[in-house]
Amino acid sequence: MAIIKWTPFLEPFEDMEKMLSDWPALSSGQSGFTPAIDVYEDKDNVIVETQLAGIDPEKVDVSIENDVLSIKGESEKKSEVEDKNYYRKEIRRGSFYRSVALPAHVLGDKAEAEAIDGVLKITIPKAQEAKPKRIEIKTVKK
Asked: Smaller CB count within 10 Å for the chain: N or C?
């Protein structure tokens, strides 16, 4: 399997979709972010890692359906100071969602997730590939 580099810059058609999906967030003054992910596999598992530093792992929802992994949650700031005079504000707050097609058929109900030092690691066992069954042809003589 080839490595696909993730970039936060979207393709032209995805730009329009993102703009339309972010429209309510823009009008409310809040915007979300898209976490970067690593997807790799070993002999028995597909492993997905994403950095979620500062986000409570209990507020992150991970699901797998039809070999597509979805990660969603919310990053919130505990205290907001209205009197700040920002020169630059780049720390993102708000909800996030990321969905990725997995490179192999997996057993989603046996997946495990753990958060270690701000990194969410999801290990998903691969499903056994369907092996072709050889069917012997019986010959009948009259």
From this structure: C
